[in-house]
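User: Study the shape:
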Amino acid sequence: MIDLVWNFPLLPGQQETWARYLTAALEESGKGSVESLRPSFRAADAGMRERAARWLEFPADRVWLTCGGHHGTLNALLASGLVGQRVAAEGVSYPGFLDQVRLTKTTVVGCAVDDEGLVPESLREVCARGREEGKPVRGLFTMPTVQNPLGFVTPEKRRQEIVAIAREFELTILEDDAYGFMEEHAPTSYVRLAPERTFYVRGLAKSLAPGARTGFLVAPESAAGAVASSLKCTATGTDVPQNMTALAMCEDGALDALMQAKREEGARRNAAARALLGEGVVAPGARCAWHLWIPLAQGIEPADVERAAKDAGVMITNGRACAAGPGFGQGVRVALGGEVERERVLEGVARVAAVLRGV
């Protein structure tokens, strides 16, 4: 079975680089006293947060370490006070976050999207209707740069429009930047456009490796106490050797080189996959993205396409799993990072193309 579901971009030889940096981190941590084995928030976090802040270019008192991106978004949800509230999101959104809102009994409200991302007028309409009905929308979850699963990059002008709406309706913004590295010259992030209301999450599962359980959370200054509390409650600290490994790769340029290599390989896979699927089949998106969204005509059920692809020996994602509400998710996602070998990925894409021709 060819895996076009799990989208973890990996390149041959990465494990050797990771092992070298991890070995050095373990040796360094082993030189410390036995006290160094206490939870990271007791001592190690301060220095690591300062290093992370320098790399991210934010004040250290706003930067926190998390156990990956999922842990970051969960803690942003907790620390922002949005649990149990109504949160807007792109109508086709990241399934991992949709799982988190279901788990925490938080209501998600889907907004319309187009080729440039979240439609500001739709967000305004959702917020205005919520206010009129006494069910106000309190937050916005968004992936503006190489969105998962749609792949769009929201232009800066539109981001500014969305920030204005967020300020008008007092929305807290949760910004997930898991795939942002795939767009080398991305527009300004929400955390810089609206620092007073944005929780920014950046995991390293895509840019480095899924086994690297390091992530970063940048929060408003006013949320420091809430973030510290939520992180202690959900993890009692983070993995120090893993963080030392990731930070060393951030600081000496190794991660930059790896991200560049992944952008180059992503561009090759993306172009080849689009050519196999044919003109007009795939939604527009970032040219280096390791995933593609295929809209389906009304009347074609995504589950049927998913089953047909499985019968052809390929796993793809049913778009309904990405739906933030009724009427969304009319498509399927094809991930280009489920397999390490490009040839195997493209063989899977060719089979999906045949399935689509059949329906």
In short: The CA atoms of residues 2 and 314 lie 5 Å apart.
